[in-house]
UniProtKB/TrEMBL annotation:
It holds the Pfam family DUF929. It comes from mine drainage metagenome. This is Secreted protein containing DUF929.
Length: 185
């Protein structure tokens, strides 16, 4: 089984573990979005990070398999280094906001995640003010995996982090069906 496929399956198990543990973002982030607004851009509280770590461990005990998986194996050369998980998102995007929760839980299974900060998705988009955090200042330490996060825009849709040429090429190649179920363009 390829390393990418194993990682993909681990991601699916992490998401299933999150559902199995019945830990939603409403339980993890105290207060409502207006209360969170004062925390925007501030580091996530250590207590919340500990709750995420506990949820990640609880997911390891999950016995249910997800009903469906859209993860597809991608073949490539083994460079003798840990694989890189490339995350490209935007703070304003409510879908990215929801995705960050499962991604953080998965990363916590493989190493230490720090530098995440409180965030809300855009106030004027579908699912406005979705509670989340940003990976803009995130650091990840692991012997198994490297994590490269690129938050392309803030919640007001102003540019934040530019994509490297390599990240842009990966994005252009895989941000289309069948790898994602919809296309932006």
């Amino acid at each position: 089984m390829s390393r990418i496929l194993r990682f993909g399956l681990t991601l699916v198990v992490a998401l299933a573990g999150l559902a199995h543990a019945r830990v939603g973002y409403a339980q993890l982030l105290p207060g409502t979005p207006p209360a969170l607004a004062a925390k925007l851009g501030h580091p996530v509280a250590p207590a919340l990070m500990q709750q995420l770590e506990r949820a990640s461990v609880a997911g390891l005990r999950s016995t249910q398999r997800p009903a469906a998986s859209y993860i597809k194996a991608i073949q490539g050369p083994n460079l003798g280094k840990p694989p890189v998980l490339l995350y490209i998102g935007a703070d304003y995007c409510p879908y990215c906001a929801a995705q960050r929760w499962g991604l953080a839980l998965t990363l916590l299974r493989f190493g230490q995640l720090s530098g995440v900060r409180y965030m809300l998705s855009s106030a004027d988009d579908v699912f406005a003010n979705t509670a989340t955090f940003t990976f803009q200042f995130a650091h990840f330490n692991s012997p198994y995996l490297r994590f490269q996060a690129i938050e392309t825009a803030n919640r007001e849709q102003q540019k934040l982090m530019p994509m490297t040429a390599q990240a842009a090429q990966v994005f252009k190649t895989f941000d289309v069906p069948p790898y994602v179920q919809f296309s932006y363009g």
